[in-house]
Predict the structure.
Amino acid sequence: MENQFICQYCGKDTSNVEYDYLSGYNHLGCALEAEMKSDGFDHCIMCGVETPYKRSTHIDMRIGYIEGAGQLCSKCYNRGSNHNHLAIPEWIVENYPNDQELGAKVRELYWANKNL
Ligand SMILES: [Zn+2]
Ligand SMILES: [Zn+2]
């Protein structure tokens, strides 16, 4: 009988490999490696949504990529506070109908944040 337990990526016998380390009849490691090499889209590390960036896209060309962590979608990236973004409390926007006053308040918050 033909041995089905052959990893299609490296061609080795996988009949003695534990089920947890298999993907079908393939080594899980080999399958993951193949997936990494294929040019799929990166998924957001926070919410898992597909980002517009392919794995092959250089990180300098991306927005929302955190070195050592991975790619964020625009929503999660904008929600973050440690990317030189300033979070503006909603009540400020609502309580300052005048754009100029709002701008001044935002600037005030900006400097207040800087001095934390
Ligand atoms: Zn393999
Ligand atoms: Zn996200």
Remarks:
- The first strand starts at residue 22 and ends at 23.
